[in-house]
Amino acid sequence: MSIFHEASTPLNSKVVASSSGILLTNVPCDPTVYVGAAVRMDSLGTAYNAQANVEANSNVIGIVQAKSSSTLCDIRVTGATPAIFLSLDPTKEYFLSETVAGGLTITPPTGSGQIVLRIGQPLSATRLVVNKGTGFKRA
Question: Residue 109 domain-assigned?
Fold first, then answer.
């Protein structure tokens, strides 16, 4: 039994679950999505850059760890990414950015109506362990 509804997983996509986490492969994505971006899905199963500015933009599914074309990507849902980042600080937690679409930050959003969502913690300066927290809206 799949944890994803058939309509939200395109036929050419594949869910790879292992002891090291969950990876969605060949997922349709918006051309603006980039490797290392936190992404959300629309109702048709297309990935878009997520952002903590409003609830609708902050429903993160994971981190893009590869793009095979401008409109297909692999998304790490849980577990460690490959070495796709530069200069992460392993002593810090990373949150969804409210100012940069798809971006991560060590400073959680503080503005009214913004969403605080922990994305994960680095394993090294170049690898992130994706382990989403429960998001909440700032009052």
Answer: yes
Q: Number of folded domains in the chain?
A: 1
Residue 82 has phi, psi (to 5 degrees) of -70, -175
The rounded mean pLDDT for the chain is 90
Detail the DSSP E strand segments found in 19-127.
21-28, 38-41, 47-49, 60-69, 72-80, 94-96, 104-105, 115-116, 118-122
**pTM for this entry:** 0.87
Average pLDDT over residues 96-117: 95
Residue-number span of the structural domain to which 15 is assigned: 6-137
Contact 35, 64 (CB under 8 A): yes
Classify residue 1: in a domain, yes or no.
no
